[in-house]
Amino acid sequence: MARRNRTTELGLEAIAIEGGLIAPEQVLKIAGAERNAKTAADYGCPKGTNLADEITRYFRIGQALWLDYSKIDQPTVTQTARFARDLLEQAFGFEDLSGPKDHHDGARRYRIALEGKGGHVPIVVAAPVEDGDGFSKAMPEFGDGEGGRARRNPVVLLQDWLNASDGFYWGLVFAGDRVRLMRDNASLTRAAWIEADFAAMFRDEMFADFTAWWLLTHATRFGNPGQPPSSAPLEQWREAGMKSGTAARDRLREGVEDALREMGQGLIEANPELRAKIEANEVSLTALFEELLRTVYRLIFLAVAEERNLLHPRRTPRAARDLYESSYGFGFWRERSRRRVARDRHFDAWEGMKVTLRALERGQEMLGLPALGGMFARGNTPVMDASKLPNRRFLEAIYRLGYLKQDGSLQRINWRDMKTEELGSVYESLLEIHPRLAANGEFELDSGAKGNTRKTTGSYYTPDSLVETLLDSALDPVLEKAEAEGETAEDKVRAILDLKIIDPACGSGHFLLGAARRMADKVAELRDPDAPDRQAGLRDVVARCVHGVDRNPMAVELAKVALWIESVSPGQPLGFLDANIRCGDALLGVFDLEALEQGIPDDAYKPLTGDVKEAAAYYKKKNKDEKKGQGAFDFDSGTGAMPPRKLAANLSTIRRMPEDTVGQVEKKREAFEAWRKDPDRWATKVACDFYTAAFLLPKVEVPENYRRSAVPTTADVWKRLGGGQVYGPLEAAAVDASEEARAFHWPLAFPDVLIGKGGFDVVLGNPPWERIKLQEQEFFAGHEVADAPNAAGRAKAIKKLAAAEEGSPDRRLYDAFQSAKRQAEAASAFARISGGDGGRYTYTGTGDVNTYALFSEQFLNLLSDSGRAGIIVPTGIATDATTAPFFGHLIDKRKLISLVDFRNDRRIFPHVAGLLRFCLLTIGKIKAEEKAQFACLLLDFEELEDKRRSFELTADEIARINPNTKTAPVFRARKDAELTASIYNRVPVLINEAKSGEARNPWGVSFMRMFDMSNDSHLFRTAEELAAMGWELLGTDWARTSGQVDNSPNFNLSGGSEANANQERYLPLYEAKMMWHFDHRYGSYPPGKTDNTRALPRLNEDQLSDVTFEPTPRVWLPKSERDRKLRNVPNCSYFFGFRDITNTNNERTAIGAFVPDFAFGNQLPLIFFEERLKRVLTAGFAANFSSLAFDYVARQKVGGTHLNFFILEQLPILPPSAYSEDDLGFIVPRVLELSYTSHSMAPFARDLGYEGEPFRWDEDRRAQLRAELDAWYALAYGLSREELRYVLDPKDVMGEDYPSETFRVLKNNEIKKHGEYHTRRLVLAAYDKLVTEGMRPRVEGYR
User: Fold this and answer.
1) Of the candidates 881, 894, 824, 808, which has an alpha carbon nearest to the alpha carbon of residue 847?
2) Which residues form a coiled coil (predicted)?
3) In the predicted model, is pLDDT for residue 101 greater than 70?
């Protein structure tokens, strides 16, 4: 039986739980289910039977079967399989067990002894092992056979099969009369199972244990074939437990914060001299808080190590263990903390814990404690080590770290099964908390929650399901390739341990832990399939493979702690991680030493906040002059800097040093520090600091002596590299500025990886999604500046701070803000340096720079040629115009492997907006014939299981769909991808920048946003204002005779070219919501209404039938201003405009129409055509724009709420050459009748050769005309009838459960109005009529 765990505390002796499969508390709830008729029916009991009686009956049946099995001397696999089959069929409700069955997947073989529920419950069976563990005994029958793994144990076999299968999650593995319940580990990060010992249950009459196991693993709990795996009760229980765990994590964070506050307050109360030093600024309160954090790290490490039995070496004498557990361990103090009487004013508790902590630094034989070193080094907490702490404060802190209140009861925190990642997220959320000592001596913790919500609520935590899915695509293929390259098991282990993994924004190390576990599992199984030592494997993987970087030094410590917790091996010291987990800003600093050869970019000297322009200009000119005619520095022949290859070789030697004892770890640390401080390496480091300091240091004055500059230039870089000396104060300032900004020079930090092997094998992470530009509300969180209602109010409040007295708190806050603002500006300037000038961000350093975009490019740059990167970032990385160059680069270079896009509606990230979309992006080199994998608009991981949602696209297909940006299209389902790709194979895009001449822009279109509703609002006037100014409403315009006195204050109306030279006019300002397909009178503002509104009242039948009626706008503006906008475009008396603001969830997405001679707001952009085009052709363009086929494609391309120009330019639209005279004869009369419904559109009608009156508004007639046009364009786009049915409603073709939708809102609205999907009936009928008349779907492409 496996070692006991928390189930024993719940009264279950024969059931053990390992890992976080289902929480012990959840198992207890299951065992305590009501024994009523509903529960009996749920478990398939015959009607009228009593559930308790049924369980009793099954217990006796199982007991009889076990008694027969227990009499067998050394049972075989066959005998054990018979026992398992009989027990499951006769006592656990399985009716259709079959087997054995062999499954194959390439070279992998999975031999499953039994299968239940049509293969949805795999059951692996192994014989018991005398004096051993049948679960861990590797046997040939569990291996892959030829070409694969020769042997594996039954647990690994079942886990492999569950992981490889998509249709089910859960299975059972028997080892004699013990059985384990296991699950697909796609969302697990540690080994996890629930085990039952039938021998103990049946021999010792443990009916309660049997009841719990029966209720947990009855056949009905595994779900039914044909249903999604998520519907199984087991899965639902697990999900409920995870939700409960999320709530517990939030409470744990509160408990840890309380513990920090209690210990901080205790220090202040018991050590008056410490309080005096803090108030005198002799001791930093921030440094003290960091010591408190480190102390809590240590306490939690102890709790985890004790409960996982990892603290004492295996041969530790019982007496030493007992002494530790009875008087010194975390468990001892936790139990003591429950007794309130122990929380007195004495100080012995903390002094006793200090004994334990000191013992863990160097070892203590009496307590059986090994020397761990690392996080227990005494120099890390000097103030805490020298201070007293009252029992009442320390034990209250221990209590907060030991217990949680849940549902009104006190529960001990399960540190044993607590995921280290969850623990890390709790502490990571505390890193943004700031301590404060109030005047009354209260030790306070200020979260500044208003500006730091994301940082203080644990939303750093990346759900396991996301991590594991990313590991599947980014890590597993690299692992498989490394394993395949080795011939022997030793070769395979060596290949795996040679892999280098990094998270450049590692935080608490979530991704690193997940990757390390997978790698350690492989290593352990290869070393010893019979008894894999995962802990030893983890220790080796963490030491040799895992790397991380984070800007926050406490986060770096936290990542080390997390890795130590996972990799600690009994009897061995904590590994040396200083060379692996580094502190620095991964985005700021030198990435390639060749940048030093090129010299500092001139744009480093652009004036920033606080700079003097003359000084900045001086340094820029100086730098430019120094680079002119200068040769590049040669590292290999230079005398001052260490050559890159030597940098790499020296660090590789240090990494290979052993660390089996504290002394060896210390020697390794000393060697690493000597390497860091080597004079030659230091010269290169200073040169790199010069490079970054050129951006960071203020340029405030022109130096009197050019040799005594305050800001480094290229000459300083080259001189330092060449072994020369630079002005001392300049070097000191540059080094200080770079270190304060935490500039991180990659080739100096990891030369053995980046220089020695050309990059990392795997790059993983979920980096920050933040703008580099300093956000005032976040910086001033908790201050009145952040509470200001708007930007103007904040500016006023900041100005007030600037006027405060020098040295006052307000002035210090202002100075800190100016410094942070300048540093943010410097980081932005650094990011914007072009690749040609040595910049790091060739594709993402543009626009309002966001860190997620920079990290995406950084992930790519860190990769070796054969490596893979997995990153979680907003989906904008693949769809936005600003990041289009980066995504286009991935497509052009065939480096996109997969993209899985999620909507956050169901709060996968609980504290992130529901409208946000994010993606799992996997990058790496793919072959020319390989396709990138996609899945879009997923709401949860259940939808990822639906293969109909996934699709593939080649680089050429992506380039055809989005030829200008190479951005990713957004398809809900595979059918959408296939249909859209086929349309693009035939129909060209509106503008193809890759082509030249007329083929580039066949329609000769150009775009205009006429008036910005915010920036141009000073031009706008309401009807009330115009009337008061003496203007007169004439039709749609306001007019007055030139020369009249304008009574409006401070208003000057410039003249323009009016029809009446003596008359000035105001034109209606038309907004997007006022128009619809073929309808410029869709919405109108009620008279007198001047406030903006999302939706306008529709015109009624009488108004639409009145050909003189025009909609009322909210405001008007001078015609002269409108005409000024049109001075460079062809003379127009009507326009074609479209709605910029839109959504794929609306009734329609692409909405455009011809509109009258008015002025237009920015959300109604205009499209102008080349004058060479016949006007009748533009009618074809309008009909195409309004067609369902066009709109269907637009819905695949719009990722947000705007139909941007770059999206529109890449939509498929028939070229002018597509239209014959017969085609126009069909299209133009229909467009004319639909569009010409009022006199304001008369110029349009005249251009089409029609001189008559406007057409009468007739809803039924208009629906028919539009249906005929929709049908014509469906055929012109090449859609078959079945494809047109799909466009109208995917569920009509693919079934009600198909995971796509097109015009759902249109359908629902029409069913509500007409009692049917009116458009579908009309369009399909029109399609059939056209086909009958001889028109066929277009097969060949348009030219």
Assistant:
1) 881
2) none
3) yes
Q: Which two tokens stand for residue 16?
A: 């053990």
The answer to whether 171 touches 182, Cβ cutoff 8 Å, is yes
- Whole-angstrom distance, CA of residue 1124 vs CA of residue 1111: 24
Report the percentage of the chain scoring pLDDT > 90. Answer: 60
Residues in the chain: 1343
Q: Are 513 and 563 in contact (CB under 8 A)?
A: yes
Mean pLDDT calculated for residue range 564-570:
84
CA nearest 949: which of 973, 931, 927? 973
- For residues 647 and 638, what is the distance between their CA atoms, to the nearest angstrom? 14
pLDDT of residue 1061: 47
Q: What is the DSSP string of 1317-1338?
A: -HHHHHHHHHHHHHHHTT----
For residue 370 the two structure tokens come to 């090994």
Higher local confidence (pLDDT), 534 or 494: 494
What one-character DSSP code corresponds to residue 1100? -
Q: How far apart are the first and last CA of the chain?
A: 74
In the block, which residue shows the tokens 């700031």? Answer: 434
Q: Are 1167 and 1136 in contact (CB under 8 A)?
A: yes
3-state class of 375 per DSSP?
Answer: helix
Please name which of 884, 853, 899, 882 lies closest in space to residue 965, comparing C-alpha atoms. Answer: 884
- CA–CA distance, 317 with 1025 (Å, rounded to integer): 94
Which amino acid is located at 189 in the chain? T
Angle at 1094 between CA 1092 and CA 1097, to 5 degrees: 90
> Which H or E run includes 412?
strand 409-412
**Which residues have CB under 8 Å from 270's CB, separation 6+?**
347, 387, 388, 389, 390, 393
Query: Percent helix, strand, coil in the chain (nearest 5)?
Result: 50, 10, 40
Which of 538, 554, 574, 577 lies closest to 296 in space, CA to CA? Answer: 554
Find the farthest-apart pair of alpha carbons in the chain and give their distance in angstroms, rounded: 117
What confidence score (pLDDT) does residue 459 get?
A: 40
Find out whether 1152 and 1185 touch, Cβ atoms under 8 Å: yes
- Find out whether 492 and 486 touch, Cβ atoms under 8 Å: yes
Determine how many CB atoms are found less than 10 A away from the CB of residue 1325: 14
What pTM was computed for the model?
Answer: 0.82
Cis previous bond, 1113, omega within 30? no
For 813-862, the pLDDT digits (tens) are 888 888 888 889 999 999 999 988 889 999 999 888 899 999 999 999 99
How does residue 636 score in pLDDT terms, banded at 50, 70 and 90? very low
CB 1151 within 8 A of CB 1144: no
User: pLDDT per residue over 870-905, tens digit each?
Assistant: 999 999 999 888 899 999 999 999 999 999 999 988
Query: How far apart (Å, rounded) are the C-alpha atoms in residues 728 and 151?
Result: 65
For the segment 963-1010, what is each residue's pLDDT rounded down to a tens digit?
999 888 889 999 999 999 999 999 999 999 989 888 899 999 999 999
Residue 732: which of 748, 721, 716 has the closest Cα? 716
Distance, CA of 680 to CA of 683 (rounded, Å): 5
Q: Give which of 327, 330, 325, 323 is closest to 302, Cα–Cα.
A: 330
Residue 505 token pair: 């924004």
Query: For the segment 1186-1202, what is each residue's pLDDT rounded down to a tens digit?
Result: 999 999 999 998 877 89
Q: What is the Cβ-side half-sphere exposure of residue 1153, based on CA atoms within 13 angstroms?
A: 25
Residue 413 contacts by C-beta under 8 Å, 6 or more apart in sequence? 252, 255, 303, 401, 402, 403, 404
Mean pLDDT, rounded, of the chain = 88
The answer to whether 517 and 190 have CB atoms below 8 angstroms apart is: yes
The pLDDT value recorded for residue 1055 is 32
Please compute Rg for the chain using Cα positions.
36
Residue at token pair 């390496």: 681
pLDDT of residue 4: 40
DSSP-assigned letter for residue 426 = H
Q: Which spans in 280-363 are helix H?
A: 285-307, 318-327, 330-337, 348-362
